[in-house]
């Protein structure tokens, strides 16, 4: 059965990629914090909805998974660029986050390319969504808390994300060695 390329989940990912991410940056740099926050919330909701709709209505596809990952990555880059340029976090925190995102993305594509299957366990989704939610709320935290408090909260968020990534690496390695993905392909 041939799958449709133009599905609601794919459209949501494309909109997050080409419309919402640049719009978030635009509003943030124009000093329109409330509009940037609103766009950020819509982008986060679109990230949740594309996956939910894809699963609920059997519209999962390799293209959809790649578009979702690209949309997540581009929105993450837009968030990071904005919070760094506006001075909300320091460069070391960004390097820490960047390496975490690269490991997460590499792990995802390793399974996709080696086993031709989509594997996004919940704890891996939490790392991406949690950090994006945090970055959307960061301007509000900066306005209402001392810099030291914001830095501590930021390091806690990044550390939890890294712990979840390390669990993901361990889990993927274990499942690869046990033949889980090969079995999963036979079940599809």
How would you describe what is shown here?
With 188 residues, the chain is mainly α. It has one domain (8-187): CDP-alcohol phosphotransferase transmembrane (TM) domain (Four Helix Bundle (Hemerythrin (Met), subunit A), Up-down Bundle). The protein is 84% helix and 0% strand. Helix 1 (8-29) packs parallel to helix 3. The longest helix is centred in the C-terminal third of the chain and has 32 residues, at 147-178. The radius of gyration is 17 Å and the shape is globular. It starts with 7 loop residues before the first helix and ends with a helix. The mean pLDDT is 82.
What characteristics describe this protein?
84% helix; 188 residues; mainly alpha; Four Helix Bundle (Hemerythrin (Met), subunit A)
Q: CATH homologous superfamily name?
A: CDP-alcohol phosphotransferase transmembrane (TM) domain
CATH class: Mainly Alpha
Instruction: Give the helix tally.
Output: 7
How much strand content do the residues show?
under 5%
How many beta-strand elements?
A: 0
Low-confidence segments, given as residue ranges, are none
Helix/sheet category: mainly alpha
Please describe the biggest sheet, giving its number of strands, its sense, and whether it closes into a barrel.
none
As a percent range, the share of helical residues equals over 70%
Q: Describe the global form.
A: globular
What integer is the average pLDDT? 82
First-to-last CA distance? 13 Å
- What's the Cα radius of gyration? 17 Å
CATH architecture: Up-down Bundle
How many domains? 1
CATH topology name? Four Helix Bundle (Hemerythrin (Met), subunit A)
Pattern of helices and strands: HHHHHHH
């Amino acid at each position: 059965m041939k799958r449709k390329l133009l599905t609601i989940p794919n459209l949501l990912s494309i909109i997050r990629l080409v419309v919402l991410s640049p719009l978030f940056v635009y509003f943030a740099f124009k000093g329109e914090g409330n509009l940037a926050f609103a766009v950020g919330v819509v982008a986060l909701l679109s990230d949740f909805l594309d996956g939910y709709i894809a699963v609920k209505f059997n519209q999962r596809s390799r293209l959809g998974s790649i578009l979702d990952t690209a949309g997540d990555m581009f929105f993450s880059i837009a968030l990071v660029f904005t919070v760094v340029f506006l001075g909300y976090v320091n460069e070391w925190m960004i390097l820490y986050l960047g390496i975490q995102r690269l490991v997460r993305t590499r792990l995802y594509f390793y399974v996709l390319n080696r086993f031709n299957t989509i594997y996004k366990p919940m704890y891996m989704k939490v790392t991406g969504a949690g950090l994006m939610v945090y970055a959307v709320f960061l301007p509000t935290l900066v306005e209402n808390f001392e810099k030291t408090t914001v830095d501590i909260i930021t390091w806690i968020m990044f550390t939890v994300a890294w712990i979840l990534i390390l669990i993901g690496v361990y889990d993927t390695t274990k499942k690869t060695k046990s033949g889980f993905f090969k079995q999963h392909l036979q079940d599809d």
